[in-house]
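User: Hey, my collaborator sent me this sequence without any context and asked if I could get a structure. I don't really work with proteins. Can you help?
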Amino acid sequence: MKKHGIFSGIVLVGLGIYFLGGQLQLAFLKVFQGWPALLVIFGMALLGQAYYAREYQHIFPGTVLLGFGLHFLLSQLLPIWPKHIGVLFLIISLAFFLSARKTKTGFVQSLLFFILACFMLFSDRFSDFFLLFQTSISSIWRFWPLLLILFGLYILFVQKK
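Assistant: No problem. I've predicted the 3D structure and written it out in structure-token form, which is a compact way to encode the shape of the chain:
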């Protein structure tokens, strides 16, 4: 079996199950009849191609597609699943980390996205902390996204390699 057929094989099997589930109208497959399931299928295909064929450049997009698909599926199924945008940044962080393990690049980006995800997920707790002090910090706190913009501009225009 050729290693390059992994992606196509997984996509065809996944789409076959997807469409068969739609035609048979089975209750347990009804949950998987939406665009999040398609993200999961293509993410799994990319990850299969990445790890089986050792084409590690597919780890990042595969992890992002699989993670986003699972996130949207689970947010529909489980009421306790967090529906915060910080979860998406956490998935991107995981994608950078898994990719960095094989390609040896992107570890710093994984840390930055992880810090951003934690900051976004728990920012309401930080803002309450600063509001207790009723100082100028509480009014400055609202503009923390400007730090992201400034840091991004620094990386784009100032930092030279």
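In plain terms: The radius of gyration is 20 Å. You can pass these tokens on to your collaborator as they are.
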